[in-house]
Input
Amino acid sequence: MWKKELSVMILVALGSVACGEEDGGGADPNSAGKGTATFTTWGEEYIEEGIPAGGEGGFVDGWSVKFSKFLVVLGHVTVADGSGKEAAKMTGSRLVDHVKKGKKSLVSFPDLPAGAYEKVSYEILPADAQTELLGVDAADKDFMIENNYSVYVEGTATKEQSNKTFKWGFSQRTRYIECKAEQDGKETLGIVITSGGTDTSELTIHGDHFFYDRLQADPTGQIPTNLRFEALARADEEGDKNGEVTLDELTKAPIDLIAGYDPSGFSVTNMREFVTELTRTLGHFRGEGECTIVRAQ
Ligand SMILES: [Ca+2]
Output
């Protein structure tokens, strides 16, 4: 008899735990004062659909670009308080292809004590065996590992009757720290977790930055940063003219200062180094928000 009563009690206890979880913790006293931080990533319309010629944000020299592959390895998303004390950290990395439409969920941290977490950071880093696939073929992961790539893009640039393809891979490891973005009309460092709430941060990838003509925005704000492809196309014209702009051809291409390129004080000597430096600027936070860029490698 007592055995039967005991098993009923256990069932009741299990049932109440399950209910608490399904409710998202609202009625569970253990989750009072806690919330969830979720991180997604997205390449915006520029990577999904293409970058136009002209218009606001388009190329200024008549070219347009459409990507056919845009692989990025993101990892080590970290949430810490203002003193740097870590509250949550994502282990390992994830490989995404931002030509595939939609926002991809990277990681979610439930049960974070409510409050401000001013130090949010992440990395773009080379793929490794533990890198998880987010809607990407295993062959793409193998390719990234074999070449030690963190970023790989394929696409076609078009101007009138001219087409230039490109397939560029990069091995840079970059940390994006102290990410900040405008939230509710004011610049906010990191994220704020509310009790019972879910805060979602998008680690936004800006594909158009590959074609910037400056490595840093003009500090006076007088000179705009423009998108250009002409100097990149010329590298193939002065190379083997086969219609593909290779990184080797960009190594031989000088930085076209007359066309408007500005190294912004960085010690880059050719267009390959210029474009490689621009890969550091791909990572953003919650759309137009920015992080401090740290060269990890
Ligand atoms: Ca070529």
User: Anything to note?
Assistant: Confidence is low (pLDDT under 50) at residues 1-27. The chain is about 20% helix and 35% strand.
